[in-house]
Structures are given as structure tokens and as C-alpha cells.
Write a structure and sequence with these properties.
CATH architecture of one domain: 2-Layer Sandwich
Structural class: mainly alpha
Mean pLDDT: 79
Oligomer: single chain
Shape: elongated
Radius of gyration: 22 Å
Strand content: under 5%
Number of strands: 0
Largest sheet: none
Distance between the termini: 77 Å
């Protein structure tokens, strides 16, 4: 008897087929993979850490443009 632990999908917690036969591993299906991606893109999932410089101080001067140089003449 095998003691191999079956993986569970991080989205639906259902069983996941082996990596060699499942192109969506570690998810059970493309739907669960897409749901997970959507959570990251909408920032529902985040990695904790210190705020970056731009998070504390707002946009950098390079992001705002320089004295109207980016405006049409």
C-alpha cells in the first residue's frame, strides 16, 4: 500500500491529479487556476511586507512628468 499523500487544490480543496498528467498542477482544473489568478490581480491575495518607497510617498517625480515636458505643444 502506498503512503503517498494526495495533493488538494488550493482553490476548491478537491483532489489534484499528479503533476505528470495535470497541466494545471497544483490546481485541479483551468477554472480553479483562473480563479486564483483573479484573486492575485484584484489584490485580494497579497504578500505581507514593508511598504515600498512609492507606496509611502506617492508617485515618484518620474511618474508625474517633468514640468509639462509630456504635454503637447
Amino acid at each position: 500500500m502506498s503512503n503517498k499523500k494526495l495533493a488538494s487544490c488550493p482553490t476548491c480543496r478537491g483532489p489534484v491529479a499528479d503533476r505528470s498528467s495535470n497541466p494545471t498542477f497544483p490546481f485541479c482544473c483551468a477554472r480553479c487556476r483562473t480563479i486564483d489568478l483573479g484573486e492575485w490581480l484584484t489584490e485580494s491575495f497579497r504578500i505581507p511586507g514593508e511598504p515600498g518607497e512609492s507606496d509611502r510617498d506617492g508617485p515618484s517625480s518620474g511618474e508625474l512628468g517633468r514640468g509639462g515636458d509630456d504635454l503637447p505643444s
